[in-house]
Amino acid sequence: MTQTSPTKTPLAECFLSKRKMLSGNVLRRMHWARRRRDGLAIYRELFYVLGKAPSTPGGRVRLTITRYLGPRERFFDTDNAYGGSTKEIIDALCRLGWFVDDKPEYLVPVVEQNGERRDQPGIHIYMEVIDAR
């Protein structure tokens, strides 16, 4: 029996140039009102860049978030990369309807960090449907 690779359909892509990702440690120490304000700012920025989803995909979505480091930034370790601003980005995209829920059966998050383009820091977001239902 041969296993076929799932078809991948690009869903959306954007680059947030003015946004810095915060680590999980920074977010956990932040006051709840400031954290909420930061989450709303991410939601507004994604709404203006991507808008609401035309229709919510029924399958699994792979969300790849690439953090481009600035001139004086260091790489996050794995738990800080997944637990920081990534959660706020996922929650904002879910509110905008780009995927059904952030449960593992609907979303596969991938966080990457790139330190090669230090003159252009920001966050690159790429979504693709990997299993259509």
What does this structure look like?
It is a single chain. The protein has 133 residues and is α+β, with helices and mostly antiparallel strands. The chain has one domain (9-131): 60s Ribosomal Protein L30, Chain: A, CATH 3.30.1330.70. It has four helices and four strands; from the N terminus they run βααβααββ. It has helices at 24-29, 32-49, 78-83, 85-95, and strands at residues 9-16, 60-68, 107-114, 122-131. A four-stranded mixed beta sheet has the order 1-4-2-3, covered by helices on one side. α2 (32-49) packs across α4 (85-95). The radius of gyration is 15 Å and the shape is globular. The two termini are 22 Å apart. Mean pLDDT is 86; it is low at 1-5.
Blueprint of the fold:
Elements: E1 9-16, H1 24-29, H2 32-49, E2 60-68, H3 78-83, H4 85-95, E3 107-114, E4 122-131
Parallel strand pairs: 2-3
Antiparallel strand pairs: 1-4, 2-4
Summary tags:
60s Ribosomal Protein L30, Chain: A; 133 residues; alpha+beta; disordered N terminus; 4 helices; 4-stranded mixed sheet; single chain
**Secondary structure tally: strands:** 4
What is the assigned CATH homologous superfamily?
Holliday junction resolvase RusA
The largest β sheet comes out as: 4 strands, mixed
Separation of the first and last Cα atoms? 22 Å
Residues in β-strands, percent: 25-35%
Compute the number of structural domains: 1
Return the structural class: alpha+beta
Mean pLDDT: 86
Tell me the name of the CATH class.
Alpha Beta
Gyration radius, to the nearest Å?
15 Å
What is the string of SSEs from the N terminus onward? EHHEHHEE
Strand order of the largest sheet: 1-4-2-3
Overall geometry comes to globular
The CATH architecture designation is 2-Layer Sandwich
Instruction: Give the helix level as a range of percent.
Output: 25-40%
Which stretches are low in confidence, meaning pLDDT under 50 for 5 or more residues running? 1-5
Q: Classify the fold: give the CATH topology.
A: 60s Ribosomal Protein L30, Chain: A
